[in-house]
Amino acid sequence: MNIRTILLRTYWLLNAQFGIDPRKTLQSLQGLPRYVRDLFRFRSSYTGRLELMPCLHDWYEEGGTTKNEYFWQDLLVAKKIFAAKPERHVDIGSRVDGFVAHVASFREIEVFDIRPLSVKIPSVFFKEKDLINPDGLVSDYCDSLSCLHALEHFGLGRYGDKLDTKGFETGLRNMVSMLSRGGTFYLSVPVGIERVEFNGQRVVDPRTVIALAAQNQLFLKEFAWVGREGILIASLEPEKDFKSLSEQPYALGIFTFRKT
């Protein structure tokens, strides 16, 4: 790994796993003098009750987070489902506070996830289910299916699932069994130099995804990806892009398949 990758990985570990955000810490320290200055200026002309609630790093933030692969995949696939108007859409393991909420704003959506969901959400019908285990799955259940940034975790134990080195393949096969002939499958997974980053995720060669899809009667309709720059790119030449991406450390591949 190069220095940049090591630094990014260290930042992710501190932030996501230990709740320490070095960037925000530095920004807050930088913003402290400004806060004190503004406090005294405001207090000099304000006579009401005043309590302190320092927000020290917001001066340095944009109006929202758009350079995030989740933002782009959730927006892209939700728009596709809105345009397609499927009879029944089922989601497997995608973010409830992102993609699922997007879709639930304009239609009903069924959600299967190995993790529980304690809150009932309008238009969201939830079922706790491990997709590595085919028991209870119904064939030809839906005409539209999504699994965004989730399949790469199957079999790594990260979310309480059992360890399974073939979890990716098994999960994909079980999902496709739920999809009716002619149905659409929206899938996103990390793509790049193929490896397992235990127990976080798999990164898969995009050509491996295509090969596994073909084994499960899936035909590629569209492909897009989000790279390190945080920009969504719609592929015009998927085969060429697959080769290029397979030699890169990381990108998020967003595949749209049709079941033949």
Description:
There is one protein chain. With 260 residues, the protein is an alpha/beta fold. It has 2 domains: 3-60, no CATH class; 69-259, Rossmann fold, CATH 3.40.50. It contains 7 helices and 10 strands. An 8-stranded mixed sheet has the order 3-2-1-4-5-10-8-9, sandwiched between helices. A two-stranded antiparallel sheet has the order 6-7. α5 (167-178) links the parallel β4 (142-148) and β5. α3 packs parallel to α4. The longest helix is centred in the first third of the chain and has 22 residues, at 22-43. The chain is globular, with a radius of gyration of 22 Å. The chain starts with a helix and ends with a strand. The mean pLDDT is 94.
List the helices and strands and how they pair.
Blueprint: H1 3-18, H2 22-43, H3 69-84, E1 89-92, H4 96-104, E2 109-113, E3 124-128, E4 142-148, H5 167-178, E5 179-191, E6 195-197, E7 201-203, H6 206-215, E8 218-226, E9 232-234, H7 238-246, E10 251-259
Terminal Cα span? 40 Å
The name of the CATH architecture of the largest domain is 3-Layer(aba) Sandwich
How many domain regions?
2
Number of alpha- plus pi-helical segments = 7
How helix-rich are the residues, as a percent range? Answer: 25-40%
The CATH topology of the largest domain, please?
Answer: Rossmann fold
Characterize the overall form. Answer: globular
Strand-and-helix sequence, N→C?
HHHEHEEEHEEEHEEHE
Oligomer: single chain
**Overall SS class:** alpha/beta
In the CATH hierarchy, what is the class of the largest domain?
Alpha Beta
